[in-house]
Amino acid sequence: MKEFKILILLSVIVISLLIYNKKGDKLHCGDIAFVSYNSKGDDYFSIITLKQLQPHTVIYFTDAEWNGNHFNLGEGNLVWSSGDQTIPSNTEIQFKNIKTSPTTNHGFSIGELRLNANGDAIFAYVGESPKQPSTFIAAVSNDALEFGTLINTKLTAGHTAIIYPKHTYQANFQGDKSATKNNLIEALNDFNNYRLQKKNAAWAIN
To answer: Domain of life here (predicted)?
Structure first.
């Protein structure tokens, strides 16, 4: 029964994706960014929109490594649909309980991501399926090696691909989330703007 429900939800998302693609208002690299990340215990992450998202926007997330042409197998995938409402720019979208039953404060999501507290990465992208990205939008990691590579993604380390200090397993951005797109991306890559928790360390401003 659970598998049947997942298939139904996937069908709804695929239909939404087709509708969205026909509108021609597609996402590009840097149109969202990650603003929080937790890879220990109750895994979660959040993104912020850097442009207005149209209804039925679909974004895929994975913690798989990219080899320049495709993702490796055996990792998690989460599929998110914005639903039937327009989402304004500078809106934070939260994803909680991503290990088992993901919930979100906008739209709906299915799938799961099991982040490794010792090191992991998340890619956000659009495409025809979770394993067929057409455009990479954003990425985040606590170790650059966890990306695999950024070749053929158009993502830039320290810009659209955020790399937290090594051994960070929890990060929450404390800066101005209403800033303009370029200013916000710059601020998100300045770790003085975060509360970071590293392995064997307490909360601290880096």
So the answer is: Bacteria
- Quickly count helices (H) and strands (E) in the chain: 2, 12
The three-class DSSP label of residue 144 is helix
**Most distant CA atoms of the chain, gap in Å:** 49
Q: What is the mean pLDDT of the chain?
A: 88
State phi, psi for 54 to the nearest 5 degrees.
-75, 160
Q: Is the dihedral of CA 90, 79, 190, 115 positive or negative?
A: positive
pLDDT digits (tens, 9 = 90+) for 102-125: 999 999 999 999 999 889 999 999
Phi, psi of 22 (to 5 degrees): -65, -30
Q: For the chain, give every domain's residue range.
A: 2-198
Q: Token match 């991501």: residue?
A: 113
pLDDT at 149 over 80: yes
The stretches of the chain forming alpha helices (DSSP H) are 2-23, 181-188
What is the pLDDT, as a whole number, of residue 6? 46
Placement of tokens 């239909």 in the chain: 15
